[in-house]
Structures are given as C-alpha cells and as structure tokens.
Design brief:
Alpha-Beta Plaits, 105 residues, alpha+beta
Length: 105
C-alpha cells in the first residue's frame, strides 16, 4: 500500500469552503482513480490542514488521472482558490500495519 501525505496551507477564513471542496475532489478520485480514500486533519495552526491518501501502490497514485467531470473540476477550482500552498510532504510505502477499526459498540 502507498500513502501520500499532503500539507494544505489555506487562506484565513476559507476552512469551511476548503473542506467541502476537498471532500468532493476526494470522492471523485476515490470513485474514478482507484484510490482507497483519504483523511483530512486539522493541526495546531488553524491555516494548516494535513491530509493523507491511501493507494494500492505508487504506480496507481502516479498515473495521469484526467478527470473531466464538471463537478470535480469546479470543486478543484474552489479548493485551489482557498490554498496559499500545497505540499506533498511524504510519499510512503507501508512496511508494517496494525491500524484497526474501533470496536463495535
């Protein structure tokens, strides 16, 4: 499994809009590009969000996924509008895994 870790620096006051757009973009990538999905995290800095995306392998992540869906493209533009900068912080291969789902209650 391959993991990409991203740091999103967003403009002040755009967190709600960014998070909505991020979700739409992430759903489209999941549905059309073969990813396993992604998670978005807040940080101690209110203008920095951290996301990580899981993929079956690096090759699937590196493919040129040319999505042309209008909703995806609009969400991507809204996401870009909110950004100051985007960094891919880490590109990781899973070596050991014991991440578990919470027990059912």
């Amino acid at each position: 499994m391959f993991i990409a870790v991203y740091e999103f620096e967003i403009k002040e006051g755009t967190e709600t809009e960014f998070r909505k757009a991020w979700l739409e973009v992430t759903k489209a990538i999941y549905q059309n590009c073969g990813s396993f999905g992604s998670r978005l995290h807040t940080s101690d800095n209110p203008n920095i969000l951290v996301g990580y995306a899981q993929w079956p392998d690096r090759q699937q992540w590196e493919k040129d996924h040319k999505l042309t869906d209008a909703l995806y493209l609009q969400a991507r533009q809204r996401m870009k509008y909110c950004l100051v900068q985007l960094k891919t912080v880490y590109q990781l291969e899973v070596s050991d895994d014991y991440l578990q789902a919470p027990p059912a209650t």
